[in-house]
Amino acid sequence: MKKATRSSKYSNDEMRPEYDFRGAVRGKFYKPLHKGYTVQIHKANGTTVVKHLKLEEGAVMLQPDVRKYFPDSETVNAALRSLITLMTQMPDKSKTLIPKSASRK
Hints:
Blueprint: H1 30-35, E1 37-42, E2 48-53, H2 64-67, H3 73-88
Antiparallel strand pairs: 1-2
């Protein structure tokens, strides 16, 4: 017996017309995050709590593809310590591991 599905005027794989991202800017709020941000918590009793949050000194944001392999600070630190060990064994002129053309802007 087939399961009845809810009818909808939009299929699941279509973008609704009211969602217009033509003027969207990717990463618009990424850099201001390092400067700190404000969170407003609206409670059931009608009050609002405002919290000002700022990333800790030395905090690093990982890209999603990197985060897949390094899910926590212990794995990131272990990998970087291994890299530091390798870098100390390299001749001075080749210690730059990332070419300037591949660096992020």
